[in-house]
Model the fold of this input.
Amino acid sequence: MSKIWCIVWIIAALVFCRGWAIAADTDDENTSPSMQAAGNPAVKDIDGDPNKADIMQVIAAKVMLGYSDGTFKPNAKVNEDAFGKVVERLLLACSEVSEASFSVRNPNARISRIRALTVIVRSVASPGGVEGISDAADALSSCGDAASVPGWAQKYAAYALGIGLMKPGKIRPNDPITRSELAAMLARALSWSAGGKSQPLVTEKPTIYTSLVIDCRGLDIRRSMCPEIRAKDGKVIYPDYKNPPSIDFVEDCGLVAYARELSGTKRAGSTPLVVKAIDIVGTGNQAAVISDDDLGLILEQEKSSHFLAKWNVVFLKD
Done:
C-alpha cells in the first residue's frame, strides 16, 4: 500500500512541477496589470537595452507587462494576441486615445513594425491629422527605405515621423516588431498624448555636427587622392562632384583627413558624427562602404549640419 501512495505522490509532484514550469514560461501579457505589478515590479534583463527608459515607462503605465520570471524579453517578437491586449491597455491608460481598435485575426502571427505603428498613430492622431499630410513621400525622403512602405501606410509613417513616434532612419516596415521597439513607440505615444498633442515629442535643439568621421580601423583602407564614401549598392555618397572643393583646398587638406584617433585631426571638430565602415572597396582600397542605417542617418543630419557640403570628412585608419 505504501508503494501505491509513493507512486501517487511522485505523479502528483511531477504534474505540479510541469504546471509551474508552464506558468513560469507564460507571457505575462496574458495576466492582468494588477497581478503583474504586484508580483513582478522589477525587470532584470533590460539594463543594456537602448529603450530601457521607455520600457520602464510603459510598465509603470501598465500598458505592457513583464514575464513571471522577472524578465521583459526585449528582443522577443510580438504576436497578434499579445498586441491586442496591449492595445486594450493603451485605451485604459490613456484618456486621450482616439481610436485604439485592433482585430486579432491570427493570434500567433507576428506584428510588423508598420502595422503596429499604424494602430498606435490612429490612437493618438488628432482628427484629420493624418489625412492632412499632403506629401507623405517627401516627408519620408530622409528614411533610407521609404520606398518599401506600402502606399496605405505612408501618411501614417509620415505623421509618426513628424511628431516623434518614429526616429529618422530606416523604417523596416515589414520586419516583425520586438517588445523593446513596441515599448519605445508606446512610450512616445503616451508622452505625446499627455502633452495635449500640441507640441512635438522631440523638442530639444538638434545637434549640429562639425564633421563626418568614418571609422575604418580594422579594415584595409588606403590613403588616396580620390577617397570615397559609398552606400552598399555602390552609390557614391561623398564626394559630390557637383560641389567640388577648390584645387587649393584639395592640395592643402585633401578630400578627407586621415587619422588614427579623433584627437589626431582638428578637422573632426568638437561634435563629429562617427559611423563605422562595413567594408572597403575600390581599385585602390580607397572607398569606405557604410550600412543602409548609417546612410539614412548621414543624409538626415546633413540637412542641418552640412558636413559633406563643407568637406569636413575624416577617415580613421590603423
Residues 26-194 form one domain. Strands lie at 211-215, 228-230, 236-238, 257-259, 272-276, 279-281, 287-289, 313-316. The longest helix spans residues 2-24. The radius of gyration is 25 Å.
